[in-house]
Model the fold of this input.
Amino acid sequence: MGQNRVVVGCQWGDEGKGKIVDLLAAKADVIARFQGGANAGHTIVVGDIKYVLHLIPSGIIHPGKICYIGNGVVLDPFGFKEELDFLTEKNIDYTGRLFVSPAANLVMPYHKLIDAAEEKKRGTGSIGTTARGIGPAYVDKVARHGIRVIDLLSPDRLRERLDLQKVLKEKYLADSDDERADLDLIFRQLMEMADLFRELTVDVSLKLQQADSEGKSILFEGAQGALLDVDLGTYPFATSSNTTVGGALTGLGVGTKMIDQTVGVVKAYTTRVGAGPFPTELEGPIGEELRRAGGEFGASTGRPRRCGWLDLVILRHAVRINGVDSIAITKLDVLDGFDEIKVCTAYQLDGKELTEVPLDMADLVRVKPIYRTFPGWKSETTGVTSFDLLPEKARDYLSFVADDLKVAILLISTGAKRRETIFV
Ligand code: GDP
Ligand code: IMO
Ligand code: MG
Done:
């Protein structure tokens, strides 16, 4: 039987999931995205070519691999079309191997308008969303008035669903001269895309089950990270979907028997884009050095990412809520030049030591990290081909992390390219 793996981010996103999914896709047959939308930016570097994918599974770069976008994803049809054009431009042929669930909800232009308007209204409490309309699209889905891929296939139904939006979203849509509020224009543009979606729509749940029973190997590609999960993350500074393993089940219509392994992607330090608690954040020169060395600028929005040391408290949480079996540690090379490297092992709060994430986010804002300091290895790890050949101090750092989390290390990434990887 094929091995099916879920790949999830263990921090606040941008852990390097794109690279890891691309690597593991080499040995898989099918790759499926299960949640999130174009808020994701997954980077894959092959030779001199850099691909940034937002909606389309990172497996698409490998010729012949079958890719699915599940019902749990919120799909921006315009962004999706742009991504298809981008693939064509890069000579990646996706015909006959990229499919979409008819039950995926669509992100409409007006969702982006609402996303921006709500952010403004939140004022100092704004989340710092990606402005991709993700929250408002999931709101419509849960409120049961979302528009889904399948609605594109029937003009009458689409018209009816859009007419309902006119009533429900009056305060945003009426009297707006913003193009994104023009429902007639949206209707016409979507109708032009109907044939494209007609060709791509399949029963994703059924296809995955068939692939599994044929002994094929499936990779489930998560977006964002555990601490952005709407239920289990740093709410309200979170995204609007389940970024953790459960999202793979509901977002694709598969049962637990389909999952053999859960791989958590862990960046060797921590980053976060947008607002919200971040106990190990470094606002001084060390944080800036991490940002510079790691090129920490958002793949979707270009925003500078907040940077800090590795935080084992949040990682323990991520490992537990996902049932992580093994971790892929990325961007180890970024730490190569540091004199010393710190790891947060616990938090201090009101004279007490906490080893787990506090339940009240207001406490997470107040905690002070307790660090264990490791001497830097001060030598290049990029190009090292085996764990044993890594500097001893780097091995000590990695082993300390894996031992604390009680997980195996599947691989270590020491650069953005495919070959800059050590399989352990
Ligand atoms: P994702 O959202 O989890 O897929 O991650 P992003 O693509 O948003 O951000 C990860 C960034 O780090 C991308 O620019 C990758 O090309 C890059 N990257 C991935 N792995 C490594 C690594 O091991 N070392 C370095 N230096 N860069 C890496
Ligand atoms: P990938 O898949 C990093 C963050 C936003 C914001 C919060 C809510 O590339 O790791 P949203 O637009 O989802 O309503 O924004 O979540 N966020 C991400 N941060 N990587 C991502 O995706 C993210 N997707 C959303 O910055 O703080
Ligand atoms: Mg990203």
Q: What stands out?
A: The radius of gyration is 21 Å. DSSP finds 13 helices and 19 strands in the chain. The mean pLDDT is 97. The longest helix spans residues 183-200.
